[in-house]
Amino acid sequence: MTTAGTPVVRILLADDHALVRRGVRLILDREADLQVVAEAGDGAEAVAVARGQDVDLAVLDITMPRMTGLQAARELGALKPDMRVLILTMHDNEQYFFQALRAGASGYVLKSVADRDLVTACRAAVRDEPFLYPGAVTALIRHYLDRVRHGEERPEQVLTPREEEVLKLVAEGHSSKEIAELLFISVKTVHRHRANLLHKLGLRDRLELTRYAIRAGLIEP
């Protein structure tokens, strides 16, 4: 589909709040070159939708049930390397910002200024150009200077993507059987991942795993 010869960017929008999706959709659909072709209520649904839909760009919230936007971004990058991803979030948070970059996101847009920045960010993403709000640029420069000053970067990530998935689901209160069904793995494998999590993080039980998941931004407190 094209408009006056301009290819239309097909967008997948994922946010667990229907009102937010509606507002964002209004911003995007009024542009001739942008069209929301699919919506999802969480990261897992976004990945499932992307498997069966022809989508150019995914716009993902960070904090969603079952699978966060950051986890979904990694999944989508592996599933469809040519698809671009934007993180649209209420969190003006350096930790989330750097995690988004590591997850393969092309940009990081704050919901508070979505009406100003989102359209520009979408167009930049499909041109394979990064989009960063001013505070993120400042954080990126400070991070780079800190790395130079200390001569090295902090270790990438303690947990593997699969361990992070299990941690999120454990913290959300799912049983081992439910986690196994959601991730298409055996209960025995879930138990192994949980044991690895406790060992790696130096924690003792589900409660401490839940506290860690809140600090890591995997679930809301």
UniProtKB/TrEMBL annotation:
One of its GO terms (biological process) is regulation of DNA-templated transcription. Residues 10-126 form the Response regulatory domain. Keywords: DNA-binding, Phosphoprotein, Transcription, Transcription regulation. Residues 152-217 form the HTH luxR-type domain. The keyword Transcription regulation applies. This is Two-component system response regulator. InterPro entries: CheY-like_superfamily, NreC/VraR/RcsB-like_REC, Sig_transdc_resp-reg_C-effctor, Sig_transdc_resp-reg_receiver, Tscrpt_reg_LuxR_C, WalR-like. The lineage of its organism: Bacteria, Bacillati, Actinomycetota, Actinomycetes, Kitasatosporales.
